[in-house]
Design a protein that fits this description.
Radius of gyration: 25 Å
Oligomer: single chain
Strand order of the largest sheet: 9-10-11-13-12-14-15-16-17
Largest sheet: 9 strands, mixed
Shape: globular
CATH superfamily of the largest domain: Alpha/Beta hydrolase fold, catalytic domain
Order of helices and strands: HHEEEEEEEEHEEEEHEHHEHEHHEHEH
CATH architecture of the largest domain: 3-Layer(aba) Sandwich
């Protein structure tokens, strides 16, 4: 008899729950400027909106935290929802990014969070430290040491998904503990001195190179190198084992010295790859383009700073920028103590591997892309590097983008490449 009564009671309980509580809830944070750009000390108004199906939510409140791009807290509190939205205001007294993180906790105890970001005079963001006095001497010395080592290029034909493009596995001897390892693609029958070259570099992680067939099909000599100089085309388990063991926490390996830091080998592989590409008979002797995202974005800046032959580079949400600042990008290289003071040895190492510093050394055209709510490569750090580029440059601002690749970047990158193709020249 008790079981028969249980079903009606459960039905009554479900019916008693408001419709809005049964439907999916979405939270959004948007700025009152469509481009999310403001001036220093100008009030930024964030609109926090809550939607739950077709029914308006009941009286509720949203907790919020305002930060200097995810670092210092500059404001916090709670605001009541008036209908479906609430307003949160704040500002910064210096160039940077103001971030609003809003949290709504429903009657079921589940919390949802949304983030909005605003740039306050980001074009005026300055580097936290200058380029080291011996920066050029250090890297010229490393390039000279590398030049003494023969490339010993090994090209092995591999299958191509495009019958108009031929592909090769490429291995090059290199200083720094690992070879250059990548896939080279070129149009079949390319004549000598006829092709621009493009180097693609990888984001964080441990994986094989990709075959850059699409770029080769556009009429380019294209090379994609993996970040670690490891063999290509291996089973997933092979890369998983490396990531769990030898390459675990690789961004911090050897960071106490510029002579032992892991990224020294990675940057030397950039130099060697570009030397190989520009030594190929198909290179037209003019265009050298470098593209990448995140860690690859940082590498593209570094490559442009290391090699004056680079004519264009396109970093998307670049990492390794502003290592020495509190608001820095991945991998948050410099540890800080309980008082916020940086480790002095790692701080000095970081200055020689900061993409922001390499940006000052290039004359190539630059295309950046930045997400205003990117918590991996924070927009403050991206703009610190962008502002250090002395030549022609442009940046794709995406106020709603986290750490991602959006079509807006792909379109802008393709336009940059097209502008640097020989056919585009007058």
């Amino acid at each position: 008899m008790r079981r028969k009564l249980l079903i009606p009671i459960l039905v009554l309980l479900v019916m008693a729950v408001p419709v809005w509580a049964q439907e999916a809830c979405t939270l959004d944070v948007a700025t009152d400027h469509a481009d999310a750009l403001y001036h220093v000390n100008e009030t930024v108004t964030f609109s926090v909106s809550l939607k739950q199906g077709s029914e308006p939510p009941p009286a509720a409140e949203v907790a919020y935290v305002l930060t200097n791009d995810g670092a210092d807290v500059v404001g916090q509190g709670k605001v009541a929802l008036a209908g479906t939205s609430a307003q949160v205001t704040g500002t910064l007294g210096k160039p940077g990014f103001l971030r609003c993180t809003a949290t709504f906790t429903g009657p079921d105890g589940k919390a949802i969070t949304a983030v909005g970001g605003a740039g306050l005079d980001p074009l005026n963001i300055k580097p936290s430290l200058p380029v080291p006095d011996d920066f050029d001497a250090f890297w010229e010395g490393k390039k000279a040491e590398l030049a003494k080592l023969p490339m010993n290029a090994r090209l092995t034909p591999v299958d191509s998904p495009n019958d108009q493009v031929e592909c090769f596995d490429l291995q090059l001897d290199c200083n720094g503990g690992a070879p250059v390892s990548g896939y080279l693609a070129r149009p079949k029958g390319a004549a000598a001195k006829s092709l621009p070259v493009l180097l693609s570099v990888h984001g964080a992680g441990v994986r094989s190179s990709d075959k850059p067939v699409d770029f080769a099909a556009r009429g380019m000599l294209a090379l994609d190198i993996n970040a670690h100089g490891i063999p290509n085309g291996q089973p997933k388990e092979y890369y998983d084992e490396l990531a769990a063991n030898r390459l675990k926490d690789y961004p911090n390996q050897g960071r106490e010295s510029r002579e032992t830091y892991y990224f020294l080998g990675m940057y030397l592989r950039l130099i060697r790859a570009m030397d190989f590409l520009t030594a190929q008979p198909e290179w037209n002797g003019k265009e050298l383009i470098v593209c990448g995202t995140s860690q690859g974005g940082g590498q593209s800046i570094v490559a442009a700073g290391l090699d004056p032959r680079v004519t264009a580079f396109a970093p998307n949400v670049p990492a390794m920028c502003e290592h020495t600042a509190l608001v820095c990008g991945w991998p948050r290289l410099v540890p800080r103590d309980d008082k916020g003071m940086p480790d002095p040895k790692v701080l000095q190492t970081a200055r020689y591997f900061d993409a922001m510093n390499f940006a000052t050394r290039t004359k190539a055209e630059a295309l950046f892309a930045v997400g205003f709510i990117d918590d991996v490569c924070r927009p403050t750090s991206v703009y610190a590097a962008y502002n250090n580029v002395p030549g022609k440059k442009s940046i794709v601002n995406e106020p709603k983008m986290t750490h991602a690749v959006w079509q807006s970047y792909n379109d802008a990158r393709d336009a940059l490449i097209a502008a640097h193709m020989p056919a585009a020249k007058p």
